[in-house]
Design brief:
Strand order of the largest sheet of chain A: 3-2-1-4-5-6-18-19
Function (chains A, B): The transhydrogenation between NADH and NADP is coupled to respiration and ATP hydrolysis and functions as a proton pump across the membrane.
Structural class of chain A: alpha/beta
Number of helices of chain A: 12
GO biological process, one term (chains A, B): NADPH regeneration
Largest sheet of chain A: 8 strands, mixed
CATH topology of the largest domain in chain A: Rossmann fold
Number of domains of chain A: 2
Keywords (chains A, B): NAD, NADP, Nucleotide-binding, Oxidoreductase, Translocase
Catalytic activity (chains A, B): NAD(+) + NADPH + H(+)(in) = NADH + NADP(+) + H(+)(out)
CATH architecture of the largest domain in chain A: 3-Layer(aba) Sandwich
CATH class of the largest domain in chain A: Alpha Beta
CATH superfamily of the largest domain in chain A: NAD(P)-binding Rossmann-like Domain
Oligomer: homodimer
Family (chains A, B): Belongs to the AlaDH/PNT family.
């Protein structure tokens, strides 16, 4: 069977779903690999490097060329509509928001796997793209903060006086938040962090951060993810966070709720209470933002309430794509590992009795297998009528 | 006596020669301080913060307002020509290149102190602006590299495989180079460094770097600075460096020779032999560059010789000004400390029997006191006739 790797079409997307390293892995499984010309350029992989690894480079990859189609970003409904029945697709699918694509995949009879749905069990860690890409985002967001911050992160004791370390506050201590804590700590900052999940306190501490303990009830949803707060508790949370925000030089927000808009953690007034020169990076900008007024893909200079300067508010966009080489290295491995789990004797044959395969499957044989998505698609269709 | 702090006029210069902290220090010495409106804005200091510290903020600072004039960038010949005899100036003066200004300062009867000429003795460390600003540049240059590098700096061992650390090569191990080594190391890179001065090997090692030992004779000039190599030895040095450059993911060049153009350490061919995605940052771009083809203030995408991608070549400009808050904090302390050395009973009265005062003095009483500069100005005048 043949696996196709397309050049990503979305503007700003620089990753690729296979590297020469994973091409070698896939061909060793007996699969043929077709790579669209230029697919790896932004990640540092020339067409020649794919050919050398055993792939066939084609000028344009069409759905008829392959039985398995690997991608980074969710497919468009139009493209999904052109896929042949029985085609296997594998990549990010944003099932909660890309309902039209999900419906088209089901209608086309495609067996679609969404990397977002890979169960968070230890056997599936090597296929967990949310984790691998959050590692990139969490590291990157600290560099983005440091490059905009008019001061040092580390403490320096110099002949001309002592420079205190930057105070970094991280909100949301998932994979990206923990990685942000670790990276800011590496750079020498004094780091504190907050998460609604009390279980994250130990993780924050182990990364070198100080856990901010607010006097709020614990909130933890299924699978270790955060779940939504009631509005009055969200207000109380913001009130309790305000003094920590005001004391921070750099704030990084990473709070996400799967399938929902990002929670509003920081109001405009909380930002304006910060000192001039402070930097706020909102990693959740693309899903609505943790910070009021954030604009995706843009820096905003927010005047301080004291009138003595500005806070730089950054709406991060496409964070993993800013480091396409290592982001693709990990993503491609996630894809190849999931594919390897389903491949025997050169053929991809998903075994739905396997909890990872079953969990990651979004559509199969004309139906939407992921129940919350099926319900959302049904609701959307009803709403339209 | 009154000290004047002007808003810097040079485009791209964001530092200021006094902070509210040093205003307090200067007023405690009995000096009056006049600050031009907006002088500290880019460094995060409002006019109000200067007033609160005891300064008088004036809309426009004119030479007649003050007896002492502190600045960051070298003055223009025009401005120097307007200063009254006996005025004391204090700031960076670039005496080797700004000959017209030096001549104008002498002609105006100004007592000018150049921070570049502060002797490198331990008593004068707190006045050493070259060192304090190089600390900023050395830290900053690593952030500039990391933000352009498509991979991580640190080693990561993840479920989807191990990511090796970035290999960073630093050429020139002065204050900026050592700080670059330390910062790259903090971020988790594997760092090696080279300097023509063998004495720097221990310093490189103490910062966590591996010293690159080339089979070249040692070269060390006066005061611990590097001096120029003969052309055939410079060629040999480049040949010996080539394999280290080719193996690096990130190269940072910081080699400077006081009063001279920066030495050419890396040829175009050495850059094109690097891997695609590699990043080269030339901190010496403003003085001619250590890397062939570098453009000051610009990123250049240099095609690799293998044709598989590009190396990003960055000509750093105004590095300390990219972090104006902490750069100004240190610079202003250097200025205030030198001024304090010359101040008694509210009056600035330079004591030329003090080795620091005498060493830092560029012009006084109508003459150019720094002999190499006096010779250069005389040669320039002769050349013009």
């Amino acid at each position: 069977m043949r696996v196709g790797i397309a050049r990503e079409r979305l503007r700003g997307e620089r990753r690729v779903a296979a590297t020469p390293e994973t091409v070698t892995q896939l061909t060793a499984l007996g699969l043929g690999v077709l790579v669209e010309a230029g697919a790896g350029t932004e990640s540092g992989h020339s067409d020649t490097s794919y050919t050398d690894a055993g792939a066939t480079v084609v000028p344009l990859l069409t759905p008829g060329d392959v039985e398995i189609f690997c991608h980074v970003r969710p497919l468009t409904p139009e493209f999904a509509g052109t896929l042949r029945p029985g085609t296997v697709t594998l990549g990010l699918a944003s099932p909660a928001s890309e309902l039209a694509t999900v419906a088209a995949l089901a209608a086309s009879g495609v067996t679609a796997f969404a990397l977002e749905l890979v169960p968070r069990i230890s056997r599936a860690q090597s296929m967990d793209a949310l984790t691998s890409q959050s590692l990139v985002s969490g590291y990157r967001v600290v560099l983005e903060a440091a490059i905009r911050f008019p001061r040092f992160f580390p403490l320096y004791m110099t002949a001309a006086g002592t420079i205190p370390p930057a105070r970094v506050l991280v909100l949301g201590a998932g994979v990206a938040g923990l990685q942000a804590i670790a990276t800011a700590k590496r750079l020498g900052a004094r780091v504190s962090a907050y998460d609604v999940r009390p279980a994250s306190a130990d993780e924050v501490t182990s990364m070198g951060g100080t856990f901010v303990n607010l006097d709020l009830d614990a909130v933890e949803g299924a699978g270790g993810y955060a779940r939504e707060l009631s509005e009055d508790r969200a207000v109380r949370q913001r009130e309790l966070l305000a003094p920590y925000v005001a004391a921070a030089d750099v704030m990084i927000t990473t709070a996400a709720i799967p399938g929902r808009a990002a929670p509003l953690l920081v109001t405009h007034d909380m930002v304006t209470a910060m000192r001039p020169g402070s930097v706020v990076i909102d990693l959740a900008a693309e899903t609505g933002g943790n910070v009021e007024g954030v604009l995706t893909g843009q820096d905003t200079q927010v005047p301080t309430s004291a009138g003595d300067g500005f806070v730089t508010l950054v709406g991060m966009q496409d964070a993993p794509s800013t480091m396409p080489a290592d982001a693709s290295r990990l993503f491609a491995k996630n894809v190849a590992n999931l594919l390897a789990l389903m491949t025997a004797d050169g053929a991809v044959t998903p075994d739905f009795t396997d909890e990872v395969v079953a969990g990651a499957c979004l559509t199969h044989d004309g139906t939407i297998r992921h129940e919350p998505t099926a319900a959302a698609v049904a609701a959307a269709v009803t709403g339209e009528n």
